[in-house]
User: Fold this.
Amino acid sequence: VEVLAEMEDGIVAARQANIVSTAFHPELSGDTRFHKYFLKDVAKLV
Assistant:
């Protein structure tokens, strides 16, 4: 498992192979970094 993001209380985003999980809703944060990461990762597969 690869840790993608951490905060004070622990891991908030991780991935294993082609599965990504988050402990937050990136679409509600106003921060686009996670979306950019996701799109860049998916573009590698196309």
